[in-house]
């Protein structure tokens, strides 16, 4: 991803176009000071990285974060409207680095499995209720996040991946975790979780990887 973001700046500026950074998914909390502090620190660090890389602007998940992004970029650009003069000719990206999915030190954990199941259920429920973006675990999640969650689940189940504790991810383990996480959300009778479970099960347990997570859900809205 680092290779991609730096190449984006170089490509945009070489063509005289603005390079706009991505969304910081963290959302602030007006009720929990600790959550709020964590979100503000994470967004600040994210925007400082973007401004330092040469981006000309960015976007955020919540209006309370606009002042942070504005301050970071205004400080970096010192009154200039953009950074298009930074052509980033120092950036040299090989094609292979753009498809390198290796995460140093990354492991498959039970918590990661549970998080993907919970996010998948919560997002599908939100989507079925008419909301395409949902605040989940103090993060603003959209279809892209849910796509990652269900794609990883499908791959882990169908490839028999093993977690760092040695346990294999099987359809039975997925169903066990699904039921446990669902109970934390109020069960099948709460909101539209009954249907959300059916749809997520089909996405994760189906023999074929489906093109898009909401295709079968359209008939239910």
Q: Can you offer a commentary on this structure?
A:
This protein is mainly alpha-helical. It folds into two domains: 2-98, no CATH class; 110-220, Up-down Bundle (Malate Synthase G, Chain: A, Domain 4). It contains eight helices and four strands. Helix 2 (33-53) links the parallel strand 1 (20-24) and strand 2 (57-60). Helix 5 packs across helix 6, helix 6 (143-159) packs across helix 8 and helix 7 (171-184) runs antiparallel to helix 8 (193-205).
List keywords for this structure.
two-stranded parallel ribbon, 51% helix, single chain, two-stranded antiparallel sheet, Malate Synthase G, Chain: A, Domain 4, mainly alpha, 221 residues, globular, 8 helices
Ends distance: 35 Å
Number of domains: 2
The portion of residues forming beta strands comes to 5-15%
Shape: globular
**What oligomeric state do the depicted chains represent?**
single chain
Q: What is the percent of helical residues?
A: 40-55%
The neighbouring-strand order within the major sheet is 1-2
- Going by CATH, the architecture of the largest domain would be Up-down Bundle
Largest beta-sheet characterization: 2 strands, parallel
CATH class of the largest domain equals Mainly Alpha
Briefly say what this structure is:
With 221 residues, the chain is mainly alpha-helical.
List the helices and strands and how they pair.
Blueprint: H1 2-14, E1 20-24, H2 33-53, E2 57-60, H3 66-77, H4 95-98, H5 110-128, E3 134-136, E4 139-141, H6 143-159, H7 171-184, H8 193-205
Parallel strand pairs: 1-2
Antiparallel strand pairs: 3-4
Helix pairs in contact: 2-3, 5-6, 5-7, 5-8, 6-8, 7-8
